[in-house]
Design goal:
Layout (H helix, E strand, L loop, with lengths): L1 H14 L6 H26 L8 H8 L11 E6 L8 H12 L8 E6 L3 H18 L6 H5 L14 H20 L3 H10 L26 E4 L12 H16 L4 E5 L10 H9 L4
Parallel strand pairs: 1-2, 1-4, 2-3
């Protein structure tokens, strides 16, 4: 219908020339024809849409062969909070937990963040990550998972699921209360203690990795504190990204980077694998 209207409109423009302003009329007709062609070319993808699908088994066969080193590309995930009053730490904590629980090799994921209350989040991750992977939990952000109004017993028939889920929910509520009760003075003391550069506070000096309650490795979690001074422009989120990228260059130098806001959790644990199906496709 739109195409017919366009044809009649162009026909009207061509058959009704303005002889008193012929150059202006000719220029307007040429512009209308150009806009019409541009619109028609823009419709081709809509008329013939291309649907792309991802196949995780093909990705594993190419880059995760048994008995050979894992060749999947590393990914650095950035999370930052500029104002703890406007962006509560509990929201960022859910985002971080969803990152640590992604379905991706643990040595290929590095989560770098600029926010407080990290200690509570890292402790809870040691229990939350194996729970998600054991029962294929989706989404893997605890705040949003426990708030769902669904039948969580539908796809999980294991007898231990209900008991572990109840314990995990209680642990999540306790963690939330502790994080909300953190006073500003306590947070400042914690940050001041991290200013010391020694073996324990230097992530580059550590040879081991954090383990969950089952003894399996967790993805690397890096806390970055950026100095801010009154009277100096710290460029807000752009400055935070610059700091995260500089640390990423020294720490992991991953070829791919994912920047998330504190409230943008990963609602699909296989999202990074799906992205790699496109980004690592040689074609």
């Amino acid at each position: 219908m739109r195409l017919f209207i366009l044809v009649f409109f162009l026909r009207f423009c061509v058959l009704t020339p303005a002889y008193d302003a012929y150059p202006l009329w000719l220029a307007s007709v040429m512009c209308e024809v150009w806009f019409a062609l541009s619109w028609i070319l823009d419709q081709f993808p809509k008329w013939f849409p291309i649907t792309r699908e991802t196949y995780f088994n093909c990705l594993s066969m190419r880059f995760e062969r048994e008995g050979e080193p894992n060749l999947l590309a590393s990914v650095d995930v950035y999370v930052s909070i500029m104002d703890p009053l406007k962006e509560p730490s509990i929201i960022a904590a859910n985002t971080v937990l969803s990152i640590l629980a992604v379905d991706y090799p643990v040595d290929k994921v590095v989560s770098m963040l600029l926010f407080d209350a990290l200690s509570e989040t890292s402790k809870f991750a040691r229990r939350w990550v194996p729970f998600c992977k054991k029962y294929s939990i989706e989404p893997r952000a605890p705040e949003f998972y426990f708030s769902q109004k669904i039948d969580y017993l539908k796809d999980n028939v294991q007898p231990t699921f209900v008991k572990e889920r109840r314990a995990m929910k209680v642990g999540h509520k306790d963690r939330t209360k502790r994080m909300e009760s953190l006073s500003l003075g306590t947070v400042l003391v914690i940050i001041q203690e991290w200013f010391r550069f020694d073996y324990d506070s230097n992530p580059l000096a550590r040879s081991g990795r954090a383990l969950d309650v089952e003894g399996k490795e967790l993805p690397r979690l890096v806390y970055i504190s950026r100095e801010k001074r009154l009277g100096y422009n710290h460029h807000k989120k752009v400055g935070a990204m610059n700091a995260l990228v500089r640390v990423s260059t020294v720490l992991s130098n991953a070829p791919f980077m994912l920047n998330l806001d504190c409230d943008h959790y990963i609602n699909n644990s296989k999202a990074i694998r799906e992205a790699m199906c496109f980004l690592m496709d040689p074609r």
